[in-house]
């Protein structure tokens, strides 16, 4: 797992590294600048002699980075100039040092913005402290209108490093090189959208420095796929989990099929679908690998359902089950059984307003609400939740003890007080049935022996990677839940 911190916490990490550890500020800055200059050089080298580059520098240390990047590119032979905006008298010591160096070297420092082919955005970094107005706002609007390639230094100017919100206006970058680790502002929307492609550059912050952060969030990367257990040779289908999927309702069968298929593709050994009796034939046709048990809305056989619960290792309950007293009873029974469970969609809706049931939530539950379901669950408006994903995921996890996978364009996971943000996936995944696939994946991961809390983190990661692979093949626009499911096998390999 890799770190994500608030921009303001990164400033504390910076200052601890400089003042307590003793790595000089200019040393960190040199490494920071070098990583940006290296990326620009890698991308632009071929047209080196035909392009102009302008660094737009503020007078803080983000601007100081920019001036250093300008110097490095100048020394590499690029046609570059630096535009400084702000009162140089009020500049940081590092800025003054960097400016004096470029003046001695003879790097052009100009007094206006030019229509350069490449712009280095070093106006504001994590020191942005208020909304952008006046001449800065005009400058950003002017730069955004140009058809150039923009490289943002640390974070696009105007994005709040603590939240990802736009502080009045912001630079729309093509690339962002962020230092040390991701900031919340570079991963959450809308900030993430302003970053373009993000590269995290290790500029040498020692691990101790991260203790200065008020909170460290994490995200999964390719290396973390190792957390998914490999299949043992000495095994049988029971070894890889018995998954009970409670899904579908009268004549609604798709959700159950998608969820079950995703579970199989993610490695589940045995899948039993518990659904409405009308769905039996169609589900048997669409997924013959699954066992099927059915219920009848007129007289629900609680004992038969109990037998299914006794059979399984993991339950996934909710996709397409609809709303009703029987469904509510089912969800309650799952919760009371204390069997590890994933509760999704109508599984959540059926009990969302019932405090008595929610009090029974426990640590072996993973709730996977999208914003609408979360809104019903915690009785807050969707907009309020969308703007405070981390806060509400954490709050729900803290209040009831259940693990939370709060699904959105960036899914936020809260398990045992730790927050994770999923960075895989794409907008093509905003398509019917995509969430059903996720539920299947998470339950299969639990079934095959992945650590329970980690399944809540790795599920969305695997789902997103499969979605990315599928989008590569069929495009984001054309992506269907089935395409995501088909790619799970390329993510979880032997
Ligand atoms: N050694 C180091 O420390 C390292 C630091 N690093 C780099 O430093 C960056 C952080 O530098 P920083 O702390 O100096 O803050 P920065 O982002 O330049 O902004 C502060 C300036 O902006 C101004 N300002 C703020 N908001 C404003 C607004 N709305 N409208 C107008 N002005 C506004 C503010 O003015 P003031 O509030 O004082 O009036 C001040 O002048 C970080 O992102 C990374 O790039 C790396 O090189 C690694 C090593
Ligand atoms: N813009 C997006 N970028 C990345 N992932 C997305 C985006 N929109 C939706 N998703 C993902 O797709 C899934 C949609 O789930 P859900 O809303 O429950 O769909 P459904 O109910 O149709 O199955 C979630 O995992 C969500 O994180
Ligand atoms: K910047």
TrEMBL record:
AMP binds at residues 407-411, 435. The keyword Glycosyltransferase does not apply. This is Bifunctional NAD(P)H-hydrate repair enzyme. PANTHER family: ATP-DEPENDENT (S)-NAD(P)H-HYDRATE DEHYDRATASE, ATP-DEPENDENT (S)-NAD(P)H-HYDRATE DEHYDRATASE FAMILY MEMBER. It comes from Eubacterium segne. The lineage of its organism: Bacteria, Bacillati, Bacillota, Clostridia, Eubacteriales. K(+) binds at residues 62, 121, 157. Gene3D superfamilies: 3.40.1190.20, YjeF N-terminal domain (3.40.50.10260). Residues 10-211 form the YjeF N-terminal domain. Pfam families: Carb_kinase (PF01256), YjeF_N (PF03853).
